[in-house]
Amino acid sequence: MSIDDFLLIGIFGVETAVFIAAPVLCLSLAAGLVVSIFQASTQINDSSLAFIPKIAAMVVGLVFFGNFMINRLAGFTTWIYTHIATLTPN
User: Fold this and answer.
1) In this predicted model, what pLDDT tens digit does every residue of 49-75 receive, in sequence order?
2) Which terminus of the chain has a lower count of CB atoms within 10 Å, N or C?
């Protein structure tokens, strides 16, 4: 197994992790930004106010992007399992 093989696995793994996590994280970030702007403009400093919209945004993200995430992870898993034989020494 060469350095190129390790790099290929690492790059594909990190790329898969980013594509799986990005939709939910971006929606959570947007919800947090909207809530913080609302809190700053109304001077409401309740800490529990920030959690509910973030959780709702994450649930919405999982509902809308869950199929994409599962397909992407299944593709990565299938790719790893099909290439295990070529990555091991003879």
Assistant:
1) 888 989 999 999 999 999 999 999 999
2) C
